[in-house]
Write a structure and sequence with these properties.
The complex is a heterodimer of chains A (1042) and B (436). Chain A is mainly β. Chain A is built from eleven helices and 51 strands. Chain A is 7% helix and 45% strand. In chain A, helix 4 packs antiparallel against helix 5. The two termini of chain A are 31 Å apart. The chains are: A mainly beta (1042), B mainly alpha (436). Chains A and B meet through helix 7, strand 26, strand 27, strand 31 and strand 32 of A and helix 1, strand 1, helix 3, helix 5 and helix 6 of B. Strand 31 of chain A pairs antiparallel with strand 1 of chain B, so a sheet runs across the interface.
Chain lengths: 1042, 436
């Protein structure tokens, strides 16, 4: 297809070459295509007229490699002079896509491992703060759940299931070669109010991945099987996410891109919990009072002294402990509270980038700014980012470059998970409706440990800022043809400041005349890496490659905490003004050193074999167990290249892949977990008034046997391409077995310790992943493509000596023989229509068990059983893209099936009017109104009484709901203005678009959002409590390139 | 350049071991503890700190007993607290595990002190001081086992510090009597080791007498209880009822206090935040009525503050958490002696005088109880009011066998709490208490 005879012209000793690149079908020029002379570092990019030109010292003949996104890469030999015209075929097949692999790149057709490449252009439209949340439904085998409707908070992401209980389950994230920290710097173990230590975000955490602007991301690759991840050894067991940011092109014309969008987000109010009115709540409370009195006469509870009644003289006072008025006297204030908290939140985003390059230097400079307000007041998230990537050639054989990412994120925060005091969504939802928001003078009132919502909204109290630098310097040298050396140094530095100030109007501040904390946290990760690689075609189509390398890594964590209480007035906000001050510190450090190697060989593009090994030494383990060795082998067979398929035109690709390997995990455990330690935080005075003197106490029991957790993974896959690449199917089956699982094994507390980190479990994950992409219609004007993926993962705990339960009330349990994150509940079989009592399943098989009204409970923990699981049976996404002339339309659904969750808010709202707390504890949901009231009534909400099992058995299976969902995640419509028009404005491209998210949700779940979770505790998913749902949003935007 | 990389690689290989040897900066390894005078002192102070931890005397242990003794209303949602109030405990109650772990942590620390202090080689450590530190270890272990026995019944007795997990697995439970006997034996061991000084937040010989008097009441060793209580009452220069009642918790280091736990802004007392407005607990209506009745509560009404119809406990008034935690007060010893005398039925006048000493301080009229039964009932009632917000009543009613009559707990198996589920999962040899 190389149309023209040579384009060579001798110029001194150099030769000047010029030409033009076209679309082979439309014959239109292709600006932005890359032209490269094989065997040199020469590379240019075509200009807006599709033309390229460069000067080379190479002597003809040489081989030109021309590539462009969405087109088949073309390779041709240039022998003579003249202008070169290159015609590229549009590629619907992804076979020649370049895929980033560990320490290198690979074309898709040569891949052995299981790797998904995610189209970053498509995912970055989703208006969430971090790129990991944008991956939902886009990559088979990658389960992503945003656990909160507040931007910038933690996201739960699992690649091929959960492999560990106490070590990390998060994948390894690599940005431009830097292993970045993805562990939050906010803590789930906050200190008490006024005590120096981490602030309390209501079990939520901030995501350090939200520091990275997705605008600068060129591609995201997710490495899943052992063949792909074993080169990352100890850090690869949970999958690897490789982020490659944008770079300029050598000899490329400068390009300026501007993308700006503005939108609005809001909560779907119709899906929020339905709350009783004040009178309804009071009625239930009276009914509970009287029923309890009947059940247990010693309580002395009768109609005469029921809580909601007027005084004999007819007066009453809402919220008092006696004479609160008749039920009909009560007002309803829930809507007022919710209205104070919810808002229509503006979202805005601006990205500006410059890229281009001279023959020896290329650059990319990106600046971005995002401001997202949360749908609950007053939370918001802003991020300003700057990206500078530079590469320069030092002669023909050596190239150096840097990647720099600077960002600052600022969050105005609140407790949007658990925690009644200062918990904003919780106070709005869970304060009983009949309790007024303000007294008769208009002063704000707060009730039953909840803050006043208006006070909270108007006195924001928690902030964080994160300053982040992620940078990398590399040097590439081609020592001999095919033999390359690379050295790189990377740094991930995060300076994190979190502070809070609860003034005297808030509940926390009112107790102590103001409460403040200010914490500075520094996380520094560095990596140094050397690789030496050799790659060569032995004969024609055979290829042989070998790579060896080493890395050194270190992580330093340091935190200083200060806190104060007792401020002169609300005008004083710094701890310098606090009457009581305290301070503390925290520090930790770990190091890792590794050696690795990979050998690959392919025979005529038909048979592929690859072996990798990595040795990792970690400072976290005892001297005898430091080193872990992680091998993997993989093989592939491209049947399409065999003679019997070579000429079958309907099949354009058929490849079988298989791999087996072992990866390790040591992430997420305490840096000093193997050591026996005594803490110094145990001071005590020698006599009263003597002041604290130093004291020590045992902290941790030594475990000299602590060693690596390892996961063996077997993967088999098939790739099939049909109809000239119009249908691509990829199916993978895998089986993972994690051994020596790192586990905070509960030990008898009589040891003086409650847990010990041990290698004490075995976990299996088995699953399938199917991805299908099709080009349904490829007309002249109209094009329709579909990408579909579905994955299922079956988790099972093969061995665990002690069952371990999680979260308060032990809602979840990990137990041998069951999947992780199983719910551990008392199963309510039904409510007896005659008595209105809950009938529970019992271990002795007496399922017809009927409780008596006795204070002496007859259910025991043996009657709790595992019912349901928080993990889905399958999940995935389907994307349909349509284009007609200059219009484009994208419709993306994500789905999940078979996961259960505890409707924790409903659990708290079905507590019969909260008799334990003077009838002012918490709200009632409307669902409480369905309680049993008369003989013969069929309902699953038992008779209200504070006696017996009906409500005192809290872990009742009736709060477990089906969390399956199908969600219209994004809907986007774009229009690209005709090029003749924009050229008149001196622009290259102009596109306007509208994106809507979460427009539609299909689920049986009765709460607003089945993905929500109360906190970011990795072992306690599936608890919907106090957390706002993910918002619906609509954004309009404009993309300009010039 | 290539050469320099080869050199770098060599350095990397040779220094791997050093590179991977990282030590913590905020904790020290096991073998550096209790090796000299300073480290022994540190370990003893750390043991007191654990005694004051929120799972033990700091909060949970106290509140579980207060709830069981029907003194409180819990203001949050949570059936685990209601289980104490209604005596419907299940073994998976989170609080039980918290308390169990907090007390055994203290036992282990005391065991470290008892095992290692005698072997220290340090010329600056005098014999008297060595004895004192050792005696404090014995005292604290006695208190911990006493509390375990009265809360859970017979538990596993461990007298050696934990070196590895298996040290503490597979041991059969002792009886409740055996555990009390161990506590008594530890107190007897501590008595000669400790100085006869007056220090209110550390153990002394006098603290040993006070705790032993209480233990003897539980053991129904009335004469011994009378004698031990009498030793402190006789030391009126150092131990005296303070007037009015609220002096002991509004002032510091009063003669009322026999043994208290110290808190500071660094280690704040969790009590304030639990009792404050919007805190977790409020005194219930019956306690409020008793305290505010001038004929019953007298000036003990200062234990609560009434705002409108609400009552708040104000035993721990300092918002910065610097109030001490009260473990033994001299008022208790007066009432111990009153009870011991009444039980022996040979000095009812003396018993009545002891009781009235406490009543007089509270500003209520002297009791007129005349018979042994009347006196015992009067003492029981007095203890309820005198220790309205201290964790005494549940244990009192259990040890006197009156929980059925007074609290309607008819199943005697409910007199001890169940062994927490996680403990039995971690050590299957640990039997459950009957009835759970």
């Amino acid at each position: 297809m190389l149309a023209a005879a040579g384009g060579l012209k001798a110029q001194n000793n150099n030769i000047s070459l010029q030409g033009k690149v076209y679309d082979a079908r439309t014959r239109l020029v292709l600006p932005g295509a890359t032209v490269h002379i094989i065997g040199t570092t020469h590379e240019v990019v075509t200009d807006k007229n599709g033309e390229f030109k460069f000067v080379t010292g190479q002597k003809p003949p040489f081989v030109l490699l021309v590539s462009f996104v969405g087109y088949q890469t073309k390779q041709d030999t240039i022998t003579n002079t003249g202008s070169v015209g290159v015609y590229l075929q549009e590629s619907s097949s992804q076979l020649n896509d370049v895929v980033v692999v560990g320490y290198g790149t690979q074309t898709r057709k040569n891949l052995i491992g299981s790797i998904v490449k995610v189209n970053a252009e498509e995912t970055k439209q989703v208006p969430v703060a971090s790129f990991d949340a944008q991956l939902q439904g886009k990559a088979a085998g990658v389960q992503v759940n945003s656990q909160s409707g507040v931007p910038g908070e933690g996201v739960r992401i699992r690649v091929r299931g959960s492999t560990s209980i106490n070590a990390s389950n998060d994948p390894l994230y690599i940005v431009d070669g830097v292993f970045i920290n993805s562990n939050t710097l906010s803590s789930q173990n906050p200190s008490g109010n006024g005590v120096a230590g981490p602030v309390n975000l209501g079990e939520k955490t901030t995501s350090p991945l939200a520091d990275i602007a997705s605008a600068d991301i060129e591609s995201i690759e997710v490495l899943k099987d052992a063949e792909a991840t074993a080169i990352y050894g100890s850090r690869g067991a949970n999958g690897v996410v490789i982020i490659t940011t944008k770079r300029g092109g050598f000899n490329a014309r400068r390009k300026i891109s501007l993308n700006t969008s503005y939108g609005l987000a809001s909560v779907d109010r119709s899906r929020l919990w339905k709350v009783t009115s004040g009178p309804e709540h009071a009625l239930i409370a009276n009914e509970t009072w009287v029923n309890s009195g009947i059940d247990d006469p010693t309580l002395n509870q009768t109609v005469a002294n029921e809580p909601f009644q007027r005084a004999p003289n007819g007066t009453w006072n809402p919220g008092a402990t006696t004479f609160r008025g008749n039920p009909s006297d009560q007002g309803s204030y829930s809507d007022t509270r919710m209205n104070q908290v919810l808002r229509t939140a503006p979202l805005q985003n601006y990205d500006l980038s410059f890229q281009g390059g001279s023959p020896v230097t290329r650059y990319y400079i990106g600046a971005s700014y995002t401001d997202q307000e949360a749908v609950i007041r007053p939370a918001n998230f802003t991020r300003a980012g700057l990206k500078i990537n530079l590469d320069s050639k030092l002669g023909d054989r050596v190239q150096i470059g840097v990647s720099n990412l600077f960002s600052r994120t600022k969050r105005l925060q609140l407790r949007d998970g658990n925690g009644p005091d200062a918990g904003i969504f919780q106070s709005a939802l869970q304060t009983p409706s009949y309790l007024p928001t303000n007294d008769s003078n208009g002063n704000p009132l707060r009730w039953a440990n909840f803050d006043n919502t208006e006070v909270l909204v108007e006195n924001p109290a928690q902030w964080t800022t994160s300053l982040r630098y992620i940078g990398n310097f590399y040097l590439d040298a081609e020592i001999l043809p095919g033999l390359k050396f690379r050295s790189s140094w990377g740094l991930d530095y995060n300076h994190y400041h979190e502070w809070e100030y609860y003034n005297s109007k808030t509940q926390i501040g009112s107790a102590t005349a103001g409460e403040a904390k200010s914490n500075m946290i520094q996380q520094t990760g560095w990596v140094n890496e050397q690789t030496l690689s050799y790659s060569n075609s032995l004969t024609g189509k055979d290829n042989f490659g070998v790579l060896i390398g080493n890395t050194l890594q270190g992580n330093n964590y340091y935190a200083s905490y200060i806190a104060g209480t007792g401020f002169p007035s609300d005008a004083y906000k710094l701890i310098a003004a606090a009457a009581n001050r305290s301070a503390s510190e925290d520090a930790s450090k770990n190091t890792l050193t590794s050696f690795f190697s990979r050998v690959n060989y392919n025979y005529q593009g038909r048979y592929y074999i690859e072996a990798t090994i990595r040795a990792d030494g970690s400072s976290k383990f005892g001297a005898d167990h430091r080193w872990g060795y992680f091998p993997a082998v993989g093989a592939a067979w491209r049947l399409k290249e065999e003679s019997f398929l070579k000429n079958v035109s309907s099949i354009n690709n058929l490849k079988l892949r298989a791999s087996y390997g072992i990866t390790g995990n040591q992430n997420g455990i305490n840096d000093f977990a193997a050591k026996g330690l005594w803490t110094g935080s145990a001071g005590y005075p020698n006599n009263v008034g003597g002041g604290d003197q130093a004291g020590t106490a045992p902290l941790q029991l030594a475990n000299p046997d602590l060693k690596w957790e390892s996961t063996a993974q077997l993967n088999a896959g098939v790739d099939l391409g049909l109809l000239q690449g119009r249908v691509d199917i990829s199916l993978d089956l895998y089986s993972k077995r994690t051994r020596d699982a790192l586990l905070n094994l509960p030990v008898p507390s009589s040891t003086g310790y409650t847990t010990q980190l041990s290698n004490a479990g075995e976990i299996s994950n088995k699953g399938y992943e199917l991805a299908i992409s099709t080009v349904n219609i490829r007309g002249k004007d109209f094009k329709w493509t579909t990408n579909f993926n579905i994955s299922g993962n079956y988790n099972k705990i093969i061995r665990l000596t002690t069952p371990i339960s999680f979260y308060s009330r032990n809602w979840l349990i990990d137990q041998q023989g069951y999947a992780m994150y199983s719910f551990w509940l008392y199963q309510q079989l039904y409510v007896d229509p005659q008595t209105g009592n809950s009938v529970f399943w019992t271990a002795d098989g007496k399922t017809s068990y009927s409780p008596t009204y006795s204070k002496n409970i007859t259910l025991t923990t043996a009657d709790r059983r595992i019912i349901g699981n928080a993990m889905p049976k399958f999940f995935g996404g389907i994307t349909n893209n349509f284009s007609y002339k200059d219009f484009d339309l994208g419709v993306f659904f994500s789905f999940q099936y078979g996961n259960k969750l505890i409707n924790y808010n409903r659990f708290l709202g079905e507590k019969q009017g909260q008799p334990s707390s003077g009838f002012a504890g918490r709200f009632d949901t409307k669902s409480q109104l369905a309680r049993w009231t008369h003989a013969g009534q069929v309902t699953d909400v038992p008779r209200v009484t504070s006696v017996g099992n009906n409500y005192l058995i809290e872990q009742n299976s009736r709060f477990l709901e089906d969390g399956s969902f199908l969600r219209l995640k994004t809907l986007s419509l774009g229009y690209t203005l005709p090029s003749e028009l924009v050229e008149r404005w001196k622009l290259e491209k102009l596109r306007v678009y509208v994106v809507a998210t979460n427009l539609w949700l299909l689920t049986k779940y009765s709460g607003p959002d089945p993905e929500i979770n109360v906190g970011n505790n990795q072992n306690a998913p599936g608890l919907d409590q106090g957390t706002p749902p993910q918002p619906r949003s609509v954004q309009v935007g404009i993309n300009v390139t010039l | 350049m290539k050469k320099s990389y080869i050199i770098l690689l060599l350095i990397v290989f040779s220094s791997c071991h050093k590179f991977l040897d990282v030590q913590p900066t905020d904790a020290v390894s096991d073998d550096q503890t209790i090796t000299d005078k300073a480290s022994a002192e540190n370990a003893v102070r750390g043991t007191y700190r654990s005694l004051s931890a929120s799972g033990y005397y700091g909060a949970t242990f106290q509140f579980d007993a207060l709830l069981s003794g029907n003194a409180l209303t819990y203001t949050q949602s949570g059936a685990s607290q209601l289980q104490f109030l209604y005596h419907t405990l299940t073994a998976d109650n989170n609080d039980l595990e918290t308390v169990w772990a907090a007390i055994y942590k203290v036992v282990n620390q005391a065991n470290f002190v008892i095992a290692k202090v005698p072997a220290i080689k340090d010329a600056t450590l005098t014999q008297a001081y060595r004895n004192q530190l050792l005696g404090e270890g014995y005292f604290i272990r006695a208190l911990a086992y006493f509390d375990l026995a009265r809360t859970f019944g017979g538990v596993q007795l461990f007298l050696e510090p934990t070196q590895k997990v298996s040290d503490k697995q597979g041991k059969v439970r002792s009886t409740q009597a055996d555990v009390y006997a161990q506590a008594l034996s530890d107190l007897n061991a501590a008595e000669p080791l400790l100085p006869a000084t007056t220090v209110r937040d550390r153990a002394t010989q006098k603290t040993v007498w006070a705790l032993r008097a209480r233990l003897e009441l539980y053991l129904k060793q009335w004469a011994q209880a009378e004698a031990d209580a009498g030793k402190l009452i006789a030391d009126s220069a150092n131990y005296k009822l303070v007037t009015p009642y609220n002096t002991f918790f509004t002032k510091t280091n009063t003669t009322e206090s026999v043994f208290e736990l110290s808190y500071s802004t660094t280690y704040p007392n969790p009590m304030f935040s639990n009792w404050k407005s919007g805190g977790n607990y409020v005194p219930n209506d019956s306690v409020r009525q008793l305290l505010t009745d001038p004929a019953v509560g007298g000036n003990r009404s200062a234990l609560i503050s009434i705002s409108g119809t609400k009552a708040l406990g104000v035993l721990y008034p300092q918002s910065n958490g610097t109030d001490p935690g009260y473990v033994i007060r001299i008022a208790e010893l007066w009432l111990i002696r009153a009870e011991a005398r009444a039980q022996q039925n040979n000095d009812l006048t003396g018993a009545l005088a002891d009781l009235n000493a406490v009543r007089a301080r509270a500003g209520v009229a002297p009791s007129t109880a005349a018979t042994q039964d009347e006196l015992l009932t009067a003492i029981e009632s007095e203890r309820r009011v005198e220790f309205a917000l201290e964790p005494q009543r549940w244990f009192d009613l259990v040890r006197t066998g009156r929980a059925a009559t007074v609290l309607n707990v008819n199943d005697v198996r409910r007199y001890v709490f169940p062994i927490p589920t996680p403990e039995r999962q971690a050590d299957p040899t640990l039997d459950q208490n009957p009835g759970y």
